[in-house]
Amino acid sequence: MDTASREGAMQAVMHVEGTLEAAVRRGEAPGHPPGLAAAIRHAVFPGGARIRPQLCLAVAGACGEGGSPVAATAAASIELLHCASLVHDDLPCFDDADLRRGKASVHKAFGERLAVLAGDALIVMAFEVLGRGAATHPERLVELLRIVGAAVGTPHGISAGQAWECEPALDLVQYQRAKTGALFSGATMAGAAAAGFETAPWRALGDGLGEAYQVADDIRDVFGNPDDLGKPVGQDAAHARPNAVHALGLDGAVDRLEALVAAAAESIPICPGRKALRLRIIEEAQQFLPKKLRRAA
């Protein structure tokens, strides 16, 4: 990515951070329950890599509107849903994780009851952000609401993905597509919708990157450092969940990751910024892996 593109991407991400800050601050108005407000802020800031909102912005940018308020709104909404999923995923009834993003998980810091409520509030906040930020483009807002709703709900959204962990027999493909892939495909399709482009052709990019990220997460769960990741490792083995490294071995898992990223990059539809987006995805996908496992290009 050239310097101008990097600066544009940084400005767009800063716009998303500002949108997130404004949304969280509205929940801190006079008369709010202070514990809930603090738990919500703890869940959102400081953020992680913000991979999903950056992907949303990158697609909107490739379609010619990466810096638009609607694109920032869509990206912020996707990130709020991701934050909500992390809060719920860490709960004692699921992973019972002590750490998230290098600090205490929300239920460890604020208690289980406030963690449940904070996750719920973040989901509602995501739709409020969409309603506020995309109201000037109602034709785009309708499509964005459909995309974001599908990404978080059922039958194939992140709620369904989490629910697969409650089933006596887990459908691995459906589980991974819903729990991890849904927000990736939601991000790519929302980026296109924010720019006024047809959304369906962008699903393949999100599906491919979501599956690649799941494989990378499996690798990090086995070989990652909790201090670097900011969360516990070994969770798949502890909870008897499927893992690509256990199934394919390390080399096989890395091969699978690289093949998925390459296929995803090739799936990018025709758009003004297709070439630049393709190169950016291949370059940034390297960051999915721990440094010691990254292969030379």
Any guess at the CATH architecture? Orthogonal Bundle
Radius of gyration from the CA trace? Answer: 18 Å
Classified by CATH, the class is Mainly Alpha
Structural class of the helices, strands and pairings?
A: mainly alpha
**CATH fold call:** Farnesyl Diphosphate Synthase
Helix-strand topology string: HHHHEEHHHHHHHHHH
* Low-confidence runs of at least 5 consecutive residues: none
Give an overview in words.
The protein has a single domain (3-293), classed as Farnesyl Diphosphate Synthase (Orthogonal Bundle). Strand 1 and strand 2 form a beta hairpin. The protein has helices at residues 3-26, 34-44, 51-62, 69-89, 106-110, 112-133, 138-152, 158-163, 172-194, 203-223, 226-229, 235-238, 244-266, 274-285; strands at residues 99-100, 103-104. It has a two-stranded antiparallel sheet. Helix 6 (112-133) runs antiparallel to helix 7 (138-152), helix 7 (138-152) packs antiparallel against helix 9 and helix 9 crosses helix 10 (203-223). The longest helix has 24 residues, at 3-26. The protein is built from 14 helices and two strands, in the order ααααββαααααααααα. By secondary structure, it is mostly helical. The two termini are 15 Å apart.
